[in-house]
Amino acid sequence: MYVLGVETSCDETSVSVVKDGKEVLSNVVLSQIDIHKEYGGVVPEIASREHVKGVTYVFDKAIKEAQIKYQDLDLIAVTKGPGLIGSLLIGVNAAKVISLNYDIPIVGVHHIAGHIYANNIDNTMEFPLLALVVSGGHTELILMKEHYDFFKLGETQDDAVGEAYDKVARVLGLPYPGGPVVDNMANKGKDTLNFPRPMIDSGDYNFSFSGLKSHVINTHHNMVQRKEEINIENFCASFQEAVTDVLVHKTIMAKNEYNIKQIIVAGGVAANSGLRRKMIDKIKDVPIYFPNMAYCTDNAAMIATAGYFQYLKGFKTDDLYLNGQSRLNMEE
């Protein structure tokens, strides 16, 4: 079964062809990082225009690399939300054109479901499982008892972890995107500042990173005002240790409460080396899987894979009224 995946929820224009929810025949990603770097973050209007400019090229390149024709496709899976509405509409409407032109069924896929199913490309998902979703817009713990059965145990009450990384990086004068840079700096430093671990003892599975972000920013501001020397590596290491301590602690709590067979980490922050090391060091009794680095950040292969399992699960296909949605509840 050949599935065409389409992902345009933010600032990557991506199209992929995946066979049987496992074999990636092509995964073309047109990144806008260099464009948005000048502004220190994604500018929605610019992102939409860049999607329009690149979408036809990405579709054609993905089909060519997969060495198939549009007529060979069995399903189209496109991200319908959540995300930047202007960006989503480009991908959704392009996917509907292909669906209509070649009479191929189409399904709208939740963006976070895609990140979770990225783990199935190089590994095999076994249920029940626990998914730690960590990205620029999401921080969630999700229990899955079978395919496409999502039960949210907890989520961030304010900032997502990836957002906190980017804001801390900006204050420290580090380039955008800040997450990978902070991670790299943290590997060279030590936890000398002992930042607070927010909600680590709350007894539930919710997260909060806004207060930690503010504490880090205020600490930096006060050190600058006092003209104290700031060791950037130690600053990043102290921040990353606080974040990963909370993420791993909550994951272990959920693991101990639910009889799960595996833990998977999903989203852009799944590429964070500090988080990967701590998860592996602290959790020994349950296998832990991370997506291949190519499938951590936004890409269409993960959407094609999720769409494949969504289709097999028996969810109805969409019609030409399919639309993008900036907010979307995955459990529903």
List the helices and strands and how they pair.
Blueprint: E1 2-7, E2 12-19, E3 23-31, H1 33-36, H2 44-66, E4 75-81, H3 85-102, E5 106-110, H4 111-117, H5 119-122, E6 129-134, E7 139-144, E8 151-155, H6 161-171, H7 178-186, H8 210-225, H9 232-257, E9 262-266, H10 273-282, E10 288-289, H11 300-312
Parallel strand pairs: 1-4, 4-5, 6-9, 9-10
Antiparallel strand pairs: 1-2, 2-3, 6-7, 7-8
Helix pairs in contact: 2-3, 4-11, 6-7, 6-8, 7-9, 9-10
Tell me the CATH topology of the largest domain: Nucleotidyltransferase, domain 5
From the spread of the alpha carbons, the general shape counts as globular
Mean pLDDT: 96
Question: Which spans of ≥5 residues are poorly predicted at pLDDT below 50?
Answer: none
Please work out how many helical segments DSSP would assign.
11
Strand line-up in the sheet with most strands: 3-2-1-4-5
CATH top level class name of the largest domain: Alpha Beta
Beta-strand residue fraction:
15-25%
Share in helix = 40-55%
